[in-house]
Amino acid sequence: MRKEAEERKSEILDAADELFAQRGFDGTSTNDILEKVGIARGTLYYHFKSKEDIMDALIERYSLHLISSAQKMGADRSVPLYERILHVVMALNIRGDSSKEIMEHIHKPQNALMHQKIQRVIINGVPPILTELICEGIEQGLFNTPFPYECMEMVIAYANTVFDDDMVELTNEERASRIQAFIFNVERLLGAESGSLMSVVMQMFDSGNGDRSDASSTE
């Protein structure tokens, strides 16, 4: 019964994810979700109190997916260390059929608490993943810092604030400048060779292998 309940809940979230992407959050009704899943209203309300509750559950699911993706990227030793670090940061962008709707929902004033929850997930969940990579780099002689965790905490906290449009409004030119300065200063924090991270970033973007990343899922 518990398994069936979890499967039903997942079906509702999958349907809502698809409908939000197609029609938008405001353009999707609970009736639309009911019809797509093929369930009674009572079944829906057994799992979720409202459409907003469904969206919040989707956001939570995406948050857990972000951390899982970041862990997977960091653990892939077939990829060079610098690239793994950047891939972990890139994994922090929310992706999915309804990602645009999720971002709009999060950034509404009444959803400030949910926004804060996602930031908390990132700030608490990502530095440990990156710290393992930094320690690996220290062993290889690529980095030199006595505070690997604290460095990554600073990096994620900064990125999750400055590259969040709700916190700081930036033009494209200002954002590009901030990203360059960000990478430059990360190299200083880690005691890395000057230009080492920057060159990897440019190579990844020039080759088309990387999506634009602002190191924040809540942009």
For CATH, the homologous superfamily of the largest domain is named as Tetracycline Repressor, domain 2
CATH top level class name of the largest domain: Mainly Alpha
- The CATH architecture classification of the largest domain is Orthogonal Bundle
Largest sheet: none
Q: State the separation between the terminal residues, measured CA to CA.
A: 39 Å
What is the approximate shape?
Answer: elongated
* Strand segment count: 0
Rg, please? 20 Å
Sequence of secondary-structure elements: HHHHHHHHHH
Give start-end ranges of low-pLDDT stretches. Answer: 208-219
SS content category = mainly alpha
Helical coverage, percent range: 55-70%
Per the CATH scheme, the topology name of the largest domain is Tetracycline Repressor, domain 2
Percentage of β-strand residues: under 5%
Number of helices: 10
Mean pLDDT reading: 83
For the record, the count of structural domains works out to: 2
Would you mind describing this structure in some detail?
The chain is mainly alpha-helical and 219 residues long. The protein folds into two domains: 48 residues, Homeodomain-like (Arc Repressor Mutant, subunit A); 155 residues, Tetracycline Repressor, domain 2 (Orthogonal Bundle). Helices cover 70% and strands 0% of the residues. α7 packs antiparallel against α8. The longest helix has 28 residues. The C terminus is likely disordered.
Topology:
Layout: H1 2-23, H2 30-37, H3 41-47, H4 51-75, H5 81-90, H6 99-106, H7 112-139, H8 148-162, H9 172-190, H10 196-206
Helix pairs in contact: 1-2, 1-4, 4-5, 4-7, 5-7, 7-8, 8-9
